[in-house]
Design a protein that fits this description.
With about 700 residues, the protein is an alpha/beta fold. It is about 30% helix and about 20% strand. About 55% of the residues are buried.
């Protein structure tokens, strides 16, 4: 008779939902994965990605043993080796690099491919801090949002109150494809009579379901928001009592937005004047109204200021009075004590235990760092986990050129032979979320979960924390972070943390699987102000932003690449580029799974009928899209889902013919927090292999 048990787990994908899961295990093998029905937000269903997760766990394409490169870099030719041999090789090469170039010639590279606290923020960071390696600035997603919060304080609205909203604006986010449980909440609001507005250049699945779809050009969100404030103040639709009691700087704001007429915003954004006015009136006169923004609008040159403008809209109209109003922006991911695991205070012998860190390099500019002959010391060793930078980092051509360096020693710890792993010298097999225990915080809702290990690691796979302990032991690091097992690390992350103080104790998590953190349901933290600013009020004119050189008041920072700001460039590359999240994948995480690859096979380039006609492009034809940075071959889809003058390419496809969407994107920083500018690029499109369409022509 088979032994059957059910294990409480949690999804560790880089998704705002962080679903609570129940895993059925029979004779040591996971046979089913389902939502935990006890969870009030994620308990009804899974997304299309995780619904097929067991195919990922037991995929024949998984890396199951350590591998050592045997062919030229990028050839994908490897041989199996033992873990001892792999660790010996890595440590020997690192010591050689340190002896010749110093520890800062080693660069760790990671992000949230596994969002678990141990995997994403754990002992691996402590290892590289102790080693004295270069530090990585991890701002490739949401850097502007975090940067804005650091300067002006973070406002708060409970996303579970969205069903009580009378108006929901999904601004720069496709809820249906990227946060399905937020869409559930918004759908409940719709059934209760709420109106849904989507602000997005692209007609997404969410936009197709909305009552109103407003389509600004990429990177012009702030212009639209400023014009909305102009209309609200000109027509005296602001909440004057709330503004007087809970805000400062209204006179400065009034003077500032006086010049932002709907006509000016229409010229900048492409949104019709009557639509700007109608949107402003609907938002100002509907209570409560909620804005749920996404990372889509955070991929432009002025994204930080655009987010600032959204928060100003909520304060100007008094939406913070109601628990179902304001701007939804939860951050329970950071409720545990991440610093207790990452140990940024650690350093090599001779460096002060607590002092300024060493060199910091940007993950957004990886290609630049790997190919810069003036960088001192040069990056000579790269260790990648929880990420696939060959696909997800901008300026892909330069990233791949860096990975191809014969003098760069690269280690990749992953479940599959990704595009990055193909360039590695050593590949280490990684566990899936069912093969390790984890602490998981959501970045879209107010929950922390304990994910118990459901099955033994498949093959010789090891978790990030275990690899960190192996490397630390071989390097002779014997401090506390490297002696603690995973359960003890989870306990350390919770001890004395905000999560524990708000109810997420280890005992409760072990009993229930998850716990809510943050303010209590129904609370209204900003009804009377209570903003995390020096004055305690919402500051329309922010001295903190002024000191940062951005100006005290919200502003529109135009795209670096657009027909208006770069006319000479636009004469060669006249089309704006959107890089889109996909419905059946999360960034590049599912590139190895045939079942999901079949749902979205070859990359498609979507372009408007008029743009296709001008270029002689038929629906379904092979096309080439290019600019000075690179070129991508794709299949044309002629559709009105994109605006005329704009093309859309899916983000996260593994490389085909040597390139994917990020061959076209820039590694420029946005205005705040060193965020990315993935959607700030100009391109041209032509039938594939047409003469004159090579990159840079």
């Amino acid at each position: 008779m088979s032994a059957v048990r059910t294990v409480r787990a949690a999804c560790t994908h880089d998704c705002p939902d962080a679903c609570a899961l129940l895993v059925t295990v029979e004779d040591g093998r996971a046979t089913a994965i389902a939502p935990n029905p006890a969870h009030p937000v994620t308990g009804r269903h899974l997304c299309v990605k995780v619904d097929r997760y067991l195919e990922r766990v037991y995929s024949p394409l998984r890396v199951l043993t350590p591998l050592r490169r045997t062919g030229p870099k990028g050839s994908g030719r490897f041989e199996p080796i033992t873990w001892d041999a792999a660790i010996d090789t890595i440590v020997a090469r690192w010591r050689e690099v340190v002896d010749r170039h110093g520890a800062e010639a080693i660069l760790p590279y990671s992000y949230l491919g596994n969002m678990g606290v141990l995997s994403a923020f754990g002992t691996m960071h402590a290892l590289f801090h102790r080693l004295g390696a270069s530090r990585l600035e991890r701002t490739i997603c949401g850097g502007q949002s975090v940067g804005l919060g650091a300067l002006t304080g973070s406002t708060w609205m409970d996303p579970e109150r969205l069903p009580d909203s009378r108006l929901v604006i999904a601004w720069g986010v496709d809820l249906v494809s990227t946060t399905v449980h937020t869409w559930d909440l918004v759908s409940r609001a719709m059934r209760r009579g709420a109106r849904i507005v989507v602000i997005d250049p692209y007609r997404s699945r969410t936009a197709a379901r909305a009552h109103r779809h407003v389509r600004p050009h990429p990177g012009t969100d702030a212009a639209l928001a400023l014009a909305m404030m102009h209309v609200i103040l000109a027509e005296r639709l602001e909440d004057a009592e709330y503004v007087a009691r809970a805000t400062t700087g209204i006179d400065e704001l009034r003077r500032h937005v006086a010049e932002w007429t709907p006509e000016r915003a229409g010229k900048a954004s492409g949104v019709a004047v009557e639509d700007v006015v109608a949107l402003a009136r609907e938002y100002a006169t509907t209570r409560p109204a909620a804005i749920r923004h996404g990372v889509g609008m955070q991929r432009a040159a002025g994204a930080g200021m655009a987010l600032r403008a959204l928060h100003c809209l909520a304060a100007l109209t008094g939406q913070w009075r109601d628990p179902a109003g304001g701007v939804a922006d939860a951050r329970s991911l950071r409720a545990p004590d991440l610093g207790a695991l990452m140990r940024p205070d650690l350093g090599p012998p001779g460096r002060a235990e607590i002092g300024p860190p060493g060199r910091t390099l940007s993950m957004i500019q990886l290609g630049r760092h790997l190919t810069d002959p003036a960088l001192a010391p040069p990056v000579k060793a790269l260790y990648v986990w929880n990420s696939n930078p060959a696909v997800i980092a901008p300026d892909q051509t330069r990233v791949v050129a860096g990975l191809a360096r014969d003098d760069l020693f690269t280690v990749v710890h992953d479940q599959f032979l990704t595009d990055t792993a193909r360039w590695a010298d050593v590949v280490l097999p990684a566990t899936t979320m069912l093969e390790q225990q984890e602490l998981v915080g959501s970045w879209g809702f107010n929950y922390v979960a304990l994910s118990e290990q459901a099955i033994a690691p498949v093959g010789e796979a090891k978790a990030n924390s275990e690899v960190a302990r192996l490397l630390a032991a071989r390097l002779g690091f014997d401090g506390e972070p490297f002696r603690l097992d995973d359960r003890a690390l989870i306990a350390r992350a919770l001890a004395g943390s905000r999560a524990e103080a708000e109810g997420a104790s280890l005992e409760r998590l072990a009993r229930d699987g998850f716990a809510r953190v943050g303010p209590q349901p129904g609370s209204v933290p900003h009804a009377d102000g209570g903003f995390p600013t020096a004055s305690g009020k919402f500051e329309f004119a922010s001295e903190a932003l002024a000191r940062a050189g951005l100006g005290a008041l919200p502003a529109w920072i135009p795209p670096a690449e657009s027909p208006e700001t770069a006319p000479e460039l636009a004469a060669r590359f006249p089309l704006r580029l959107l890089t889109l999240k996909r419905h059946h994948s999360i960034n590049s995480s599912y590139g190895a799974l045939p079942v999901l690859a079949r749902a979205e096979p070859d990359p498609q380039l979507e372009l408007a009928p008029a743009d296709a006609q001008r270029r002689g492009i038929a629906d379904g034809a092979a096309v080439r899209v290019w600019n000075e940075r690179g070129a991508v071959v794709a299949r044309a889809r002629v559709t009105d889902r994109v605006l005329e003058g704009t093309v859309a390419v899916p983000f996260g496809h593994w490389m085909r013919d040597g390139a994917s969407a990020n061959a076209l994107t820039s590694d420029r920083f946005g205005d705040l927090g060193h965020g990315p500018t993935f959607c700030d690029a100009l391109v041209e499109v032509a039938p594939a292999f047409h003469t004159g369409t090579r990159a840079g022509s």
